[in-house]
Amino acid sequence: MRGAGFQVEARNVNDDSLTAVMHASGVPDSLGSCHTAQIGGYVIEGHVPAETIRRLLRERPRDVAGLAVPGMPAGSPGMDTGGQRGHYDVIAFGRDGRTRVYERH
To answer: What is the DSSP string of 62-102?
Structure first.
């Protein structure tokens, strides 16, 4: 994210602390991953591409609490080692628990 121009304040925490942050931020369990971030009033969970976050901040959808890339899919940012290309979805989630595909990669 730093390489994409975002200012980042990172903290290493254990799994229990990360889960607590994820729950406090409203991320549904089914969308959990290895990173939870907050930017511009939104929650970002997992390996969401920088350009997708920029789109979110530009569009500012009111029905979206955050974006998530569940798990750690091959081909997502940071998981693209060795030229692996995989398809994955970026999921938008609302405060009401509803989810939808925000982007397909």
So the answer is: TT-SEEEE-S--TTSTT--GGG-----EEEEE-TTS-EEEE
What kind and span of H or E run contains 9? none
CA–CA gap between residue 31 and residue 41 (Å, rounded): 18
Q: What is the CA radius of gyration of the chain?
A: 13
Return the DSSP state at 97. Answer: S
- CB 69, CB 88: distance < 8 Å: yes
3 state SS of 87: coil
**Structure tokens belonging to residue 96:** 């009401």
Strand partners, 37: 44
Backbone torsion region of residue 74, taken as left when φ is above 0, otherwise alpha when ψ lies between -120 and 50, otherwise beta: beta
Q: Where are the alpha helices (DSSP H) in 44-86?
A: 50-59
What are 37-80's pLDDT values in tens digits?
Answer: 999 999 999 999 999 999 999 999 999 999 999 988 776 776 67
